[in-house]
Amino acid sequence: MDNRFTAIMLGPPGAGKGTQAVRVAEKYEVPHISTGDILRDNVARETELGLKARSFMEGGDLVPDDLIIALIADRIEQGDADSGFLLDGFPRTLAQAVALEDLLREKEMPIEVVVLLDVNDDEIVRRISSRYLCRDCGRDANLGTGMITDVCPHCGGELYQREDDTAETVQNRLQVYRRQTAPLVEYYEGKNLLMKVDGIGSIDEISGRMFRDLEREWESGNG
Ligand SMILES: [Zn+2]
Q1: How far is CA 170 from CA 101, 131, 173, 177, in A?
Q2: Domains: count for the chain
Q3: Ligand 1 (single-atom ion) residues, CB below 5 Å
Q4: Long-range own/partner contacts, residues 48-52 (CB < 8 A, 24 or more apart)
Q5: Catalytic residue among 23, 92, 139, 196
Q6: What is the CATH number for 102?
Q7: Is the pTM for the entire model greater than 0.70?
Q8: Is 126 one of the catalytic residues?
């Protein structure tokens, strides 16, 4: 193992994965590569890949795996990823994981650790169905604090609840997630890359736990 930090962040919707991913990327000084962000960025800049992706999105179709892989390859080639990267939102399926592995083998940057934020279904349903979002800044008003306020604690904006954030739709989303992710978890477990982190608690508690485990993993890997 070299000293590059190449990692993937997995976790169910509502587990606070994005927030934790930002913290990990900051701590290890690597770019946080979110597939949502690179898609939006390429579409906005009207790059060749972005235009292709847009044609799928406009048709209401999922952007195919090979296009996402090409976008990730392009992103990794930008200089800031020389010391590593943290992938967020990809891979979601086993097929994507295999395609990613092929790409990273070519780049000689294999994945060193896969962090799985572990939160049980009841807790996810509870969190999402009690979630209030800000109309102004788009942030989650009670994220991590569990506090319910009348206005956005970040900017004072008006709060609302997403219509599809009901217990039933959340349960459906979770089922899809579990079905897709179970083989992925098994795959990375088999490669001895999976690091499960208990995702219950405040944002600080969870990142503290995660950093402690990552350091231990890192020391044993490097030592
Ligand atoms: Zn706000």
Answers
A1: 30, 12, 5, 10
A2: 1
A3: 134, 136-137, 152, 154-155, 157
A4: 49/74
A5: 92
A6: 3.40.50.300
A7: yes
A8: no
In a domain, 166, yes or no: no
**Residue 184 belongs to some domain of the structure:** yes
Domain presence at residue 73: no
Tens-binned pLDDT, residue by residue, of the chain (223 aa): 457 899 999 999 888 888 899 999 999 999 999 998 999 999 999 999 999 999 999 988 889 999 999 999 999 999 899 999 999 989 988 999 999 999 999 989 999 999 999 999 998 888 888 888 889 988 887 765 556 678 888 899 999 988 888 888 888 889 989 998 889 999 999 999 999 999 998 889 999 999 999 998 776 665 4
209 is catalytic: no
Catalytic option among 131, 139, 196, 209: 131
Backbone φ, ψ for residue 17 (5° rounding) = -60, -45
In a domain, 67, yes or no: no
Catalytic residue among 45, 107, 135, 162: 162
> Rounded to whole angstroms, what are the CA distances from 153 to 43, 138, 148, 157, 171?
31, 12, 10, 8, 28
Distance 162 CA to ligand 1 centre (A): 15
Instruction: Provide the domain limits for residue 20.
Output: 5-31+78-119+179-222
Largest separation between any pair of C-alpha atoms in the chain: 51
